[in-house]
Specification:
By secondary structure, this protein is of the alpha+beta class. It is built from seven helices and eleven strands. The protein is elongated and about 75 Å long.
């Protein structure tokens, strides 16, 4: 089986992707995490991965931010009818064709407009929340795409008869599989940075709006999270945990030190001429660090099949993200500016 199966209604014959790389039909039941093709065209997990809970928290945070910046949601709503719509898009959204010079001149002309600087600043902070929302969607869809390739795409073309046993392949599809996995970890690390910036910003919302404030979090990254007043709330992504350790480890390896495998490849277990398992291997680790000897740091003696645990890891990461966003919102509400 290869490629997408179409957008037919979900039914007993619907394809289900599995973490072991071998797809089945929905009527066959399930014994592990699975993915089903949704009408919009992405593969979504059968078990909730936290995507919609993150979206809900972001929507609530948008509301609380507006109330906090304007010292009350009524004042925010009262100001909206008179504000030019381009203010919320220029410099942020490709739907606005305004240049920097045009934006600057417009801001100068509108300088006496009530609450102009509050609105500009609010849009900037909300862009951080929007980044969290969009990046979370990317993580969810990249996870589904990883399992789509693992389950449905041939590892080697043209397909040939295979002898029973363990076989590894490298091919364009295998390259896409490995690059999707790598980009997934990079985007999860992006979320860590976005959340750290958002936390820093919410802890230091400006009081003076006589001028257009700069974001205080512009140069703040996840690695500086110990400087946050909130510390490391239990269950959040700021608390030391396996999910964050692994995301940081893999991201740093990919960005600074090379690939996860000297020759990115994928494995298949063949039995009776057909694949009964497909997998990718992750390098060995000890105490959260890659096993290392001198210059060598990609050992594979532990046979860590990342595909078997990736879906669960992403789900736990998202659950912690929900807690993180909830803590940010509740701290804003407790500050009394809403």
């Amino acid at each position: 089986m290869s490629g997408h199966t179409g957008l037919s209604p979900v039914g007993p014959d619907s394809m289900v992707l599995h973490v072991n790389g071998i797809p089945s039909r929905l009527r066959d039941g399930r014994n592990d995490a699975g993915f089903l093709l949704e009408p919009m065209g992405s593969w979504r997990p059968l078990d909730d991965d936290g995507l919609y809970a993150v979206k809900e928290e972001c929507v609530r945070l948008h509301h609380v931010l507006a109330a906090s910046v304007f010292n009350g949601i009524e004042r925010y709503h009262a100001s909206l009818p008179g504000l030019p719509s381009f203010l919320s898009e220029a410099g942020l959204n490709s739907e606005s064709s305004v240049t920097r010079e045009q934006f600057e001149r417009a801001i100068q002309r509108l300088a006496t407009f009530p609450d102009l600087n509050r609105f500009l600043y609010l849009c900037d902070v909300r862009s951080l929340v929007a980044a969290v929302q969009e990046c979370t969607k990317e993580v969810s869809q990249l996870t589904g795409e990883f399992y789509r390739i693992l389950n449905l795409e041939p590892f080697f073309t043209p397909e040939i008869a295979q002898q029973d046993g363990l076989r590894w392949s490298t091919s364009p599809n295998v390259t896409r599989l490995n690059s999707t996995l790598g980009f997934l970890f990079i985007r999860m690390h992006s979320l860590l940075d976005y959340l750290a910036k958002l936390a820093r910003e919410t802890e230091g919302l400006p009081l003076d709006f006589s001028s257009y404030p700069r974001l205080g979090s512009a140069n703040f990254l996840f690695g500086q999270r110990k400087r946050l007043e909130m510390g490391a709330p239990r269950g959040s992504l700021f608390e030391p945990c396996d999910e964050v350790h692994e995301v940081e480890l893999v991201r740093n390896l990919l960005i600074h030190d090379g690939l996860l495998d000297d020759m990115p490849k994928a494995y298949e277990v063949i039995d009776g001429g057909a694949a009964v398992e497909r997998f990718l291997l992750f390098p060995d680790r000890r105490n959260g660090r890659l096993e290392r000897y001198r210059n060598r740091h990609r050992f594979f003696g532990q046979e860590d099949k990342i595909n078997l645990r990736l879906a669960g890891m992403v789900k736990r990461f998202q659950e912690r993200q929900v807690v993180t966003l909830r803590v940010l919102r509740e701290r804003l509400e407790a500050a009394g500016r809403t």
